[in-house]
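Support request, priority: normal
Reporter: lab tech (M.K.)
Component: structure prediction queue

Hi team, I submitted a job for RDD family protein from Plantactinospora alkalitolerans yesterday, and the status page still shows it as pending. I've pasted the exact input below so you can check whether something in the sequence is tripping the parser. The sequence length should be 341 residues. Please let me know if I need to resubmit or if it's stuck on your end.
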Amino acid sequence: MVFTVQVTAQPPRSASARPGPSTGLGADAGLVSGEAVELEIRAARLGSRVLALLIDIAAQFVVAVLLVIVAGIVLDSFTDNRPPDEALLTGLQTVGVVLLLVGYPVSWELLSNGRTPGKLAVGLRVVRNDGGRVGFRQSLTRSLVGVAVEWPGLVLPLLTWAVSVTVMMTDPRGRRLGDLAAGTMVIHDRSPAGFGYVPAMVPPLIGWARSLDLTRLDDGLALAVRQLLGRSATLTDPARLRLARSLWAEVAAVTSPPPPPGTPDWACLAAVHAERHNRARQRLARTRSVSTALWPELAPAAEAATPELTWPVRPAAPAPSSPPAPVTPMLAATPQGGPDR
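Reply from support: The job had stalled in the queue. We restarted it manually and it finished. Here are the results:
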């Protein structure tokens, strides 16, 4: 008996499986590299795209004023200050409108790798759906569709504006009608600022952390823990302790067993965060080893050997302004790069 096993480098994912705009700093563009690794790239949403559009409209207005001045000077030189022909004026106006509404975005996107001045100021970029560089056909298609039914909208402006906004808000990647027609999308070209120093596992809590049940600790609550720990050095003690106590109450309600008596809230949060990160690394190592065994070409030779995973334990540093406690001094250390940035 012969069994056939089909292995796919990129399994299909439904739109609902992708993280939406509520994931904060998470990747939601759905772009996958050639090694079947999802890239941490965020899709641009309505707010940032409208801001980029407003900047581009202002730039187009400046270009329009310059074109009118140049056209007036040229006409005066060729007509000897006589009134120009009406048909000539109509033709020049048509050419100017086409250059502003179509030539402006197409030329900028081709010359600046998918960036217009507005997108460059906001930190956006137009790419193909597969993440590649946008070409002339895609840029021209999205510009023509945009002029016709989006902005300025030559066909039923109010209705098409409402449809465009609805499409952008409901599409998983925030694409507009022009993007859907051209096979493109707009992504954030700048990565958000990373978190600061995150207190690591306290050695006396390693045994307790290994016994924790973290199945009910969802990603949202874990991200809140990560953010609070990363900003601990910028908070003062009354507010810092109050936030830690409130957040630990939420975490303690979904984890078990309880920590050793007398353990500060900050140490408990740091231990939970470090243990969750360590288990995620172990799952990733197991998945990578299985993928490498089934399809060695997907993983480089350097990733085939996964290093032994241990809890990140840093030596404690004395805190100048905090009261002495068995574990809290390390929470006031100078911010630096965390182990899981």
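The longest helix spans residues 46-79. Strands lie at 124-128, 184-188. Let us know if anything else looks off. Ticket resolved.
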